[in-house]
Amino acid sequence: MELDALTNAYLQQLSDKPIYVDSGDRLASRVGLMAFYKGQLRKFNKVGLGNRTEFDVMVTPELIAVTIKRLEELSLSRLTKVKT
Question: Sign of the CA dihedral 14, 20, 26, 30?
Fold first, then answer.
């Protein structure tokens, strides 16, 4: 299993700095969800393709691609939100 160059570049640009969210329930906000997905991508990159996470999920190119897609959807929703 291999990742394409664009996906590899995306994973490399993720910072190793901890992501802090001030809300009580970090998954209740868009920012919290984005932090969660970035953390998942970091974990997948560290675990490596073909290996399993602590929850017995195999890291595959498809898993990484769908995680990136969701992160981009959340990011785009922030950019396209109409102010009222």
Answer: negative
